[in-house]
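User: Hi! I'm working on a homework problem where we have to compare a predicted structure to a textbook description. Could you give me the structure for the chain below?
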Amino acid sequence: MAKRARKRYSPEKKAQILAAAKAQGLTANDVKKKFGVTPVTYYSWRKKSGAGKPRGRGPARGNAGLDSSLEKRVQARLRTILPRIVNREIDAYLASLGGGRRRRG
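Assistant: Happy to help. Predicted structure tokens:
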């Protein structure tokens, strides 16, 4: 299959296509059918324009509404509790294997 000639779009035309796609709720394949712009190109334009959706889980929410002093107290308490919980779980697992308790140095 022969390659097509590369088509260039003016910044105004790109903005027009992006605006139409957003207003009409078009997918990348819809944009390809309607405007002849490949999905890769469409996503590239959208990313460069700042209109793209962020990937992943989004920004970390941090303290989820806790004030900073309470958050610090919770973190400190977790630092003291978690090692004990982990050690108990490891000991229980080793005991289930028949190895008994492990030595702590």
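For your comparison, note the following. The mean pLDDT is 83. The two ends are 69 Å apart (CA to CA). Good luck with the assignment!
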